[in-house]
Amino acid sequence: MMGSSKAAIFATAVLAALFSTPAFAQTSSPPAPAPVSLPPSPAPAPAPHYVDLAELLSVAGPFHTFLNYLEKTNVIETFQSQANNTKVGITVFVPKDSAFAALKKSTFSNLTSDQLKTLLLYHAFPMFYSLAEFKNLSSLNPVNTFAGSPYTLNLTDDMGSIYVQSMWSRPKIASSVYATKPVAVYALNKVLLPMQLFSKDPPLAPAPAPAPESGASDAPSPAAGKADGLAGGKGDSTSAAYSVGAVSVANSLLLAAAGCLMLLW
């Protein structure tokens, strides 16, 4: 009985020693896998900036005449959709109000609604172009506009000045109103006039009459009238004195001639 107890105690001690050894622990419970490090995910691309073309043109310029035509023909919606719903963007050439004022009012009143719409579409490229890109773009002349073929424009870079040429006008880009992709808006000092809509160069508006000088008056001032009167009186008295002197000289000559005749007689 005593031998059995010793054998049981010995067996328990052997089992405890086996469970406490590192080898047995590794086989019974494998180590946890090391965490896998993943590369950081790229940041999402920023959404394109929304540009309200109507608001932009209403506060810049002044471009009120061009904006009124865009809204009247709903071309503003076409430009807006191209600006914010496409990746290629848009480039718009906007004539100033003075450019429209330089033309006769009948120039655009004689156009049909479709022709007027085409004229406005003629002032835009269906793609974004920065000023730096115009130099390379000029080698591709003629360039198609938003109005489609055959409504094209020719671009020239003259010592850094960009000119946009149509059939009847060659305006210069006066300034950059907005140029952040996908929208570019450039101001022009003339209206682009295509040959397909105008058979000849539209007449210019008559030059405005010069404004009268401030403070000037057509009526003579009293002082001026008085001065004129004095001057006139002086002139009249001088003339009268001259007339009297002339008469006296003539009488003297007549008397001298009569005396000579009497002596000869």
Automatic annotation (TrEMBL):
Superkingdom of origin: Eukaryota
Gene Ontology CC terms, in alphabetical order: plasma membrane; side of membrane
UniProt xrefs under Pfam families: Fasciclin
Chain positions covered by the region annotation Disordered: 204-231
SUPFAM superfamilies reported for this sequence: FAS1 domain (SSF82153)
Protein keywords: Cell membrane, Glycoprotein, GPI-anchor, Lipoprotein, Membrane, Signal
SMART domains membership: FAS1
Job of this protein: May be a cell surface adhesion protein.
Similarity annotation: Belongs to the fasciclin-like AGP family.
Descriptive protein name: FAS1 domain-containing protein
Protein source organism: Urochloa decumbens
Taxonomic lineage from the root: Eukaryota, Viridiplantae, Streptophyta, Embryophyta, Tracheophyta
